[in-house]
Amino acid sequence: MLCAEEEIINGMAAIVNNEVITFSQVRELVVAQEKVAAETLQGDQLAAKIKELRQSAINDLINRSLILQEYKKKEFTIPEYVIDDSVAKVIREEFGGDRAVFIKTLQSQGYSLARFRQLQKDKIIVSAMRSSKLKENYVVSPVKVRAFYDQNRSAYTTPEQVKLRMIVLHEGDTTGTVTKISKKGMADEVRHKIAGGAEFDRMAQMYSEDSTQDSGGDFGWVERKTLNETLSKAAFSMKAGEVSPVIELDNSYYILMVEEMKSASTKPLQEVQQEIERHLIEEEMLQAQERWMKGLRDKAYIKIL
Question: Is residue 181 predicted with pLDDT exceeding 90?
Fold first, then answer.
């Protein structure tokens, strides 16, 4: 007689026509994902995540069962050497060609070689059946390509950018001999030195209290949305080579220098046309497979328990 836990594990999760999907099959698919979830979630969040994972696994198993049933109905066959090659590839790529280690790993995971071969066969069948439902040549019309480009133009657009350096001084961070000098006064003095010809990056290394101090205040290329609204407005109103006045903001003082500027630019359609075509073809292929699966589901008896 099975113990209670065994009965649960081997109990029915779903029925697909005349075949049963067991809880053990569901667990087989999600055990690794549930372990990862348990490391980062707890309580209701963990329970909800586990429920989501198991529902997704049941759905995948239903699809797999329907495809395998269709394969048997069509009386297709797969040569044994195809399965042999698949197993050999796993041993070669994942176990360095060591068959003994491969067998031991299977045993430690509760698999027999026969069970593993069956799983590989099922994978091959599912992949082949899905592929058989796809046309050999998909053609995407120029009208569709143009429409996709127009609707997603922002994805191919690089926004306006400036190459920025910045000196930042914070009130309250004074130490030693500089405690008697206000940071505003220090910022004005630094700005005066830069106006007199001092190198901006050198001044940043000497005075800035920002994390970019060692790199001479180098912030690299930034977009408008990267900066605080006040700083962004200042930076993008300047010309290349220009240095801002001292900007007071949130108890800190900023001096900006724009080194270079880039205007917003959009890649022309010709440059991204092949990329868009590939994307649209992938969408067509996915939709074709989904229509096929829907047809199998519509004709099947499916009950999730």
Answer: no
